[in-house]
Amino acid sequence: MEIARPYLLFLGDVADSLAAKTAIGIVDWRKDWCIGQIRLQGCAADTGLPDMSIADGAAAGAKTFVIGAVNAGGRLPEHWIDSIVAALEAGMDVASGLHVRLGDIPAIRSAAEKNGRQLHDVRHSTTSFATGKGTRRSGKRILAVGTDCSVGKKYTALAMDKAMNERGYTSSFCATGQTGVFISGRGASLDAVIADFISGAAEWLSPETDDSHWQIIEGQGSLFHPSFAGVTLGLLHGSQPDGFIVCHEPTRTRMRGVETPLPTIQQVIDLTVQCGRLTNPDIRCVGIAVNTAALGDDEALAYLAKVGEQYGLPATDPVRYGMEAIVDKVSAEFGAP
């Protein structure tokens, strides 16, 4: 799947920034690939890019209109269709990370055919996956896991990959969600894989490699989330991690989108080890990544110090303070590069 750049990011009329995490993630890691954003009336998210009309974006050279918003179930709101059709008529391809396939919507399919444009359903892989086998394979792996959805697992994995390469390790980022695929250019959205093949897809994403190579795997969902734990467990078994990083947002009391209480960090560590031992008996936690965006600097530093002392693990905010402390832990546990 070759998605033409630069991108014009469509945020729709989402109610908060988390609902625009695809667009925001692309801007945070690939801002140079983006021209601007389009927001409908009532949109409460902002990537910081210039607001544009579709005509403005086309005139500026945008090649692909990226649907940068998400929602529970990956649905396409009907009132977004006119914007997508207009982008196709303006000469842009359209790329989506939603579950719904763009070509299944007659108006979109017709506009793409009429204007000779491409439709990219990033969430739907064209690869056929085998079932997972659980056989130990060479190479080393780190998986981001979470106390909830949307707590920073993708950012943690990207930041860890960057920090390990800077330290002299050979590592690569493995994308398991639509935003990660937009950022890395490779991967598979595991939540769109048929359940029997999730662990096999995770094995495909993080294949056998040299023993000195680290694969840093983007996490999905949470083992404690009643909606998405099935994907999380399949990813855990298939990725067969040597180490994992627990990702946490400290102001939440309920899991996103449901009334289930948030688990503790210790509960996540214990259950991840218990379940992960099925395919890697040596699995261990190597650090805690905390999304401190809602905290002031002094409060964030105090919270990280408290968490680090409580669990005896390095605790950091990957965006604010980097991943060096967790790389130090990996070096101590598994050896220097």
TrEMBL record:
It holds the Pfam family DUF1611. Residues 129-327 form the D-glutamate N-acetyltransferase-like C-terminal domain. SUPFAM superfamilies: P-loop containing nucleoside triphosphate hydrolases. Signal peptide: none annotated. Residues 40-124 form the D-glutamate N-acetyltransferase-like N-terminal domain. This is Putative NAD-dependent epimerase/dehydratase family protein. The lineage of its organism: Bacteria, Pseudomonadati, Pseudomonadota, Alphaproteobacteria, Hyphomicrobiales.
